[in-house]
Each structure stands twice: as C-alpha cells, then as structure tokens.
Task: inverse folding
C-alpha cells in the first residue's frame, strides 16, 4: 500500500485501483476542534481538484478536494456523529472517503511522506 | 500580597487556597439556575381570578396538560435576569475589541430620542398621513447617507449588513437582466468579508476568489486578468478585513466597468473613512452601511441591525420598494401601487415595511449630534486609536501587514513567536481572565492565528494603555510557554467550554428532569 500527500494537506492511500482519502495530522492541527464533516455521496464522479468534502472547525470551514479523478465508492459515515475522529485519528479512523482511480498517472504529481514532511517544514 | 496594575492590594492569598462556597457563588459573582428550575409550577407570582369556563373551539388542538411554567414572584424574576446580565460583557462595561464589528459607545441621547412617543409608539400600518414625522426622519437620514457616500440613491429597508449585500447584488442582477446580459460570475477577493461570497452564491452567482497580494490587498493584475463577459461584478470590502485601505479601488472600479460589470462595496468598515472618503468617487455602484456599526446603534447582543444600501445612477432605478420620497413640503411612500409612474423597474420588496425605525432614529440622532465635522473626527480618531494599538504591540506580536505603513480602523496580528503548542485561542481565553471580551480570532483566514483588534474612537488613551498592558502580559506568557494558559479562563463564571460539543450537541430546550432521564 502506497501513501501519497497533496499540497492541500490530504493523504491518499492506494490499494490497487482504489484510493482512501483523508486530511493530514498537520491539517487537523491547523483547523483545531472539528465540529462538522460532510462527505461526498457514493456514486458521484469527480474530476481531480473538484470539491469533494467539507470540513468545519471552530475556526473555519474548508473544502477538501478530490486529489485524483474517479468515482466515489463510499464516505465515512462515522464522521457524521463523531467529527472529532478527524482530530483524534486523522490518518486512520478519520478518513473522509474512498474512490476509484480513473487515471493512475495523476499520482505522479503527488508527494511521498518524506517530501510532504519537507513541504510542511517549509511552511 | 497580590497587587493590581495600579498597585492596590487585591486578594490576600492565592485563589486555590480559598474554599469553594456552599452556594457556588463567588461573592458578587452569582451562580444562577435556569428559570424553569427556580420556583415550582405549584406557585404563582400574580393573584388573578380563575377565568370562567369557556367552550373550546379548538377541537383536537386543545392543550391536554399543564403548561409547565414555574410561577415566580416579581422579585424572583427581576433577580434572575439581573443576575444573568451580570455574567455578560457589554460595551458599557469595557473595551470591546472585536475586529470588523465596530463596537462603539451607544450615546444615551440616541436612546432618549428613540423613546419619544412619536417615534416609538407608531405602527407600520398606521394611515400614512398620521406619520409624516417618521417619513421625514427616514428621508432625512437617507439624505445624510447619500451625502456622506456621494451616491444619488439609497434603499433604507435592508435589515442588516448581509441583507444589504443581498439587496445590492439583486440590484446588480436586475440591471444586467434589464439589458439582456446574463452573467454568471461574481469575483470576491480574499480580503473581503466572509458574508460576501455567501451573498453572491445566495443570489445565484458562481463565486471566484481573487488572491491577496503579500501586502494584504487585492491583487489588481489577477483581478484584471479574470474580468470578462461572464463576470457580473466584484464584491470588495474597503477598508478590507486586513484593516487596510484598497488604494487601487478607483482602478478596480474602472476595470470592472470597462468589462461591463458592476462594483459592490461592503461598507461594514465605513467607520474608518466616514467624512473623509466618498465611496461614490471611487466608482462604486452599491454599498451597504451598517447603521449599527458606523452610526452607533446598539448591536452584539442579538439586537437589530440596519443595513441601508446606497446606489449609483446605474443601479438606482432597480432599488427595492418601499421608499419615502419628498413631494413639495410633504413626504409620500412609494409602494407597488404608486411605483408604476417612475420606479417600475424596482426589483421588488425585501421586507414587509420600512426597515428598522428604531435604528434610523438612533443613527440620525448620532449624525446630527456629531455634525459633519464630528463625523469626520470619528474616522480620524478611530484610525488613530487602531494605529496606537498596532504600534504599541508590534514589538511583541507579529503584525503581518504592519510594515507597509499605518492601518485603518483595525490592527491585525499573527500568532508567530508563541511557544510550541500555544495558540491564539489560549491567548483569547487568558484575556477573559483579564476582564476583556477577546478580539476577533482566526479571521481573516490569510493570517495564521489571526487576532483582529478594532478599538473604535470610543476609547480613551488610558483605556487603551490598560488593554495594551494586559495583552503584553499575556503575550509574554504565551511566548514563555506558561502551561496554565491552556486551562484559562480561571475567573469566568464557566471554565473553558467544549466548543465541539457546543456546536455538535447543543442543548436548546430545557426538559423536565424525568423527561431528560427518559430520553437518555
């Protein structure tokens, strides 16, 4: 399983042609206490960069973008009742949605863990 | 012995050595139960005769149980609300530094005028010829607003800032539709108020961001590059939410007009320029004015706002109904029935009646008591006070846009330099312990851990110096990493609240204990 990162602070786990997407520990730290998450509906087809989810904290509401193009397979329903999962377990239980991967070449522009860490340190 | 900032002794021992009181009260800081928990349904505060039985005509809608209100005596009820009011913070208690909110003093003269029976005791459905004085007041206030903004027309009815924005954008939409020009996009710079993109979206437009420059102003090149036949207009906040004047405003307006669009200006920050700059001279087509900010009518406690909108010649014909017009020496109301002659292109009506009459009365009292020279000084003193705060703190707090010169009505700082793990939220909570309402936090979004402070012209140098002293002391603790700050506030009626639970699971309705137990 390979994990990639975007400059918008999303992580993407790739298993075959499926991707699981969430926001990074750095992102949840910046957002503060998360009070609401809206995940996309299964079946919606998104282009890379399209608005996929909404995350709202006590500080701000932010969009989460689809880091790759594909079809939404499933949203994390647990976040509706317990949005704080994103704070406590951002890179595991607090995942946002799973999607199919229509063009695996889109992964090439993404960062690996080391590159993302360097990116965060530069902020 | 602890001393306050004036060197007078405060409490003799550290707070943690003091036993909790049996009542939960801390001397004059009183705990207060909910009103449903005081008294019982068996008691009553008034002595009225039981009404004779009546035949119900409500059919199945009859009440089938007791109403369940506790019966309180008058002193119990008065004490309940007075005690609660003492847990509140108000402009009459101290400096209210909320940026972008213009929390200024509400002069008592305004209140006196607003309570005059000829203004306070009239009804919106009263015959028009019995309320000539009220119409004259609305019309006179409108004339002041047109004069101060350099604009030819005004709609008085919008009820608050965001309602005014909607009024302006609907007028833009009507003007474009009237010339058969369907455009889809409204551009909103990053330095605009958060309500601006919401308004544009609510009015049916697609919203596109225009980035800010590193100096915190609109990126003119990016704006000009985006203009085109699909752009209906821009919504700009000037002075913007970084507390800065947009010096390119006229060029922005000219570029938008050349591309066939219209310019909306968010006038929430008008306090910084009132009497000094006329928005009409900057090419603006519509702008709302928050009477409850610039013109001192009370707000912040859920009280009514009032957001009249001034219009350019291009948009004036589309202004909403109703409005007051002067004919000879009397005033008439232009409504749907009377608009046909000369206001047929109005986009319609936003409210049932005329707007916030009580706010109109207060705002006009404020204007007339200040006069033209006084209003100009309002802007000058508001800007002076904000710059005093900026320069008294920029050696200990980073002011991201402070190096480019003076700010306007508000000073903006970031959380840079705080010890690891210390946030703007910790600082704000510690400020509560110092007896202040915190400043605006985490807004604007372009600044990390933003703290936005607007003192307004209300505050004296002595008040500002004390606030600055308190803030410097807390900033020093945040930089040194004083761990107690994570637990602040210590002295407020409640300690740090669980904001996630408050947002996710708010308890909005009181339930009787047995009901609440059954629900769990």
Result:
């Amino acid at each position: 399983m390979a994990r990639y990162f975007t400059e918008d602070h999303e992580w993407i786990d790739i298993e075959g042609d499926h991707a699981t997407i969430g926001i990074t520990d750095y992102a949840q730290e910046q957002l503060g206490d998360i009070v609401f998450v809206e995940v996309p509906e299964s079946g919606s087809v998104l282009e890379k960069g399209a608005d996929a989810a909404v995350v709202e904290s006590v500080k701000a509401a932010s969009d989460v973008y689809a880091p790759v193009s594909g079809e939404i397979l499933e949203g994390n329903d647990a976040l509706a009742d317990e949005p704080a999962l994103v704070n406590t377990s951002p890179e595991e239980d607090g995942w946002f949605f799973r999607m199919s991967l229509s063009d695996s070449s889109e992964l090439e522009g993404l960062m690996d863990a080391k590159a993302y860490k360097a990116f965060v340190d530069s902020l | 012995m602890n001393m306050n900032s004036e060197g007078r002794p405060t409490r003799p021992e550290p707070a943690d050595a003091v036993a909790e009181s049996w009542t939960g009260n801390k001397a004059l800081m009183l705990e207060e139960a909910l009103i449903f928990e005081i008294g019982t349904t068996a008691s009553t505060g008034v002595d009225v005769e039981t009404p004779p039985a009546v035949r119900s005509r409500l059919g199945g809608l009859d009440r089938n149980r007791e109403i369940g209100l506790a019966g309180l005596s008058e002193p119990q009820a008065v004490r309940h609300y007075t005690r609660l009011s003492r847990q509140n913070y108000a402009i009459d208690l101290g400096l209210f530094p909320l940026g972008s909110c213009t929390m200024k003093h509400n002069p008592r003269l305004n209140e006196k005028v607003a309570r005059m029976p000829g203004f306070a005791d009239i009804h919106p459905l009263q015959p028009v010829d019995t309320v000539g004085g009220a119409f004259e007041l609305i019309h006179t206030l409108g004339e002041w607003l047109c004069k101060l903004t350099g604009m030819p027309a005004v709609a008085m009815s919008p009820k608050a800032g965001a309602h005014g924005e909607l009024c302006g954008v609907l007028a833009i939409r009507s003007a474009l539709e009237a010339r058969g020009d369907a455009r889809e996009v409204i551009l909103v710079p990053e330095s605009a108020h958060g309500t601006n993109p919401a308004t544009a979206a609510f009015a049916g437009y697609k919203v596109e961001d225009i980035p800010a420059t590193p100096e915190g102003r609109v990126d003119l090149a990016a704006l000009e590059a985006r203009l085109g036949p699909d752009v209906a207009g821009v919504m700009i906040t000037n002075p913007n939410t970084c507390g800065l004047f947009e010096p390119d405003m006229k060029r922005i307006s000219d570029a938008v007009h050349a591309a066939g669009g219209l310019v909306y200006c968010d006038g929430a920050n008008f306090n910084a320029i009132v009497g000094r700059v006329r928005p009409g001279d900057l090419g603006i087509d519509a702008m709302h004015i928050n009477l409850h900010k610039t013109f001192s009518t009370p707000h912040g406690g859920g009280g009514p706002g009032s957001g009249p909108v001034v219009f350019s010649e291009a948009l004036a014909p589309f202004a909403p109904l109703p409005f007051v017009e002067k004919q000879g020496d009397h005033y008439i109301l232009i409504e749907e029935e009377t608009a046909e002659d000369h206001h047929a292109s109005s986009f319609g009506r936003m409210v049932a009646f005329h707007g916030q009459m009580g706010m109109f009365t207060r705002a006009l009292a404020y204007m007339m008591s200040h006069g033209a020279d006084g209003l100009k000084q309002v802007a000058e003193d508001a800007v002076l006070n904000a710059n005093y705060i900026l320069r008294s703190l920029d050696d200990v707090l980073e002011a991201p846009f402070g190096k480019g010169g003076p700010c306007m009505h508000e000073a903006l700082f970031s959380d840079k330099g705080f010890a690891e793990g210390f946030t703007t939220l910790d600082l704000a909570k510690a400020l509560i312990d110092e007896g202040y309402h915190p400043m605006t936090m985490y807004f604007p979004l372009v600044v990390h851990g933003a703290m936005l402070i607007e003192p307004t012209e209300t505050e004296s140098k002595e008040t500002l110096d004390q606030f600055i002293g308190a803030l410097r002391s807390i900033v020093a603790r945040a930089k040194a990493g004083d761990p107690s700050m994570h637990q602040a506030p210590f002295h407020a009626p409640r300690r740090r609240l669980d904001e996630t639970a408050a947002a996710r699971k708010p308890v909005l309705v009181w339930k009787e204990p047995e009901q609440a137990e059954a629900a769990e």
Observations:
- Chain A has one domain: 2-115.
